[in-house]
Design a protein that fits this description.
Largest sheet: 2 strands, parallel
Low-confidence stretches: none
Shape: elongated
Structural class: little secondary structure
Number of helices: 1
Number of strands: 2
Order of helices and strands: HEE
CATH architecture of one domain: 3 Solenoid
Strand order of the largest sheet: 1-2
Strand content: under 5%
Helix content: under 10%
Radius of gyration: 22 Å
């Protein structure tokens, strides 16, 4: 089946494309939401920025497929072959990837919020900066996986194989579950929780919206261009911190120590300031 035939059938209301052979086809920006590609051959297909929302791709062959920026939110990819696939910045939030083979795939900056990756193969996968908040990776293979700068808030990694995985600068919270005996702090990760000491760390550009960092030691922290919208920073020590260009709109800064902090270009609209007063929307720092 060629791309034109596929898209024509889709536009005519057909959704069942099980077992079709679409190897190497060009489907850039194609809208195929909620279609069924169970066991289809999409190896090396170009699906960059394609809309595959809630698409069924169970046990499909997607080896080497180009899926950069694709919308796979809520898709069923259980048992799919995604070896060496390009999924940079793809949206896989709430997708099912149980038992999928993603070895060697590139998921840099991918959205995997609430995704089910239980039992998946993530050998040597690039997950740098990926958003894995609330994702399940129970029993997943993370051998030599690069998780640097990934967001692991409330992520479940119990029984995962993490030999030689890179956890440098990952962000996790008290509800994140790691394999028994693993110390994420020793591995270079940062705990985001009330009262923690992150003095002198580099958190520039990170997503910290809504986090609870009450009474945290953030002295001298690099938070340039960080997103701290609605963050709870009550009584936190932010002295000498670099908050240039940071988004602090709606944040709670009551009682916080901001002495020597760089707030140049920071958005403080609606933030509660250290003196308890509300910062006006267009008020200069």
């Amino acid at each position: 089946m060629n791309p034109d035939e596929l898209l024509t059938k889709y536009e005519d209301g057909e959704r069942d494309f099980c077992l079709v052979n679409l190897s190497g086809v060009n489907l850039i920006k194609a809208n195929l939401r909620e279609a069924d590609f169970t066991q289809a051959n999409l190896s090396n297909a170009n699906l960059v920025r394609a809309n595959l929302f809630r698409t069924t791709l169970g046990t499909a062959n997607l080896q080497g497929a180009e899926l950069e920026g694709a919308n796979l939110r809520g898709a069923d990819l259980s048992g799919a072959d995604l070896m060496e696939a390009n999924l940079i910045a793809a949206n896989l939030s709430f997708a099912s990837l149980t038992g999928a083979d993603l070895s060697g795939a590139n998921l840099m900056s991918a959205g995997l919020v609430g995704a089910d990756l239980n039992g998946s193969n993530l050998f040597r996968v690039n997950l740098v900066g990926a958003d894995l908040r609330g994702a399940k990776l129970i029993g997943a293979n993370l051998w030599e996986t690069n998780l640097s700068k990934a967001y692991l808030y409330e992520t479940d990694l119990t029984e995962a194989y993490i030999e030689e995985a890179n956890f440098q600068r990952v962000l996790y919270n008290e509800k994140t579950l790691f394999p028994d005996g693993f110390d994420p702090t020793e591995a270079g990760g940062y705990l985001i929780a009330p009262g923690v000491c992150l003095s002198g760390t580099d958190l520039s550009g990170v997503y910290l919206a809504g986090v609870n960092l009450r009474q945290a030691n953030l002295r001298g922290v690099e938070l340039r261009n960080a997103n701290l919208m609605w963050a709870d920073l009550k009584d936190a020590d932010l002295s000498e911190a670099n908050l240039m260009g940071a988004n602090l709109s709606g944040a709670n800064l009551s009682g916080a120590n901001l002495s020597g902090a760089n707030l140049s270009g920071a958005n403080l609209s609606g933030a509660t300031m250290p003196d308890g007063k509300l910062h006006k929307v267009f008020q200069e720092v």
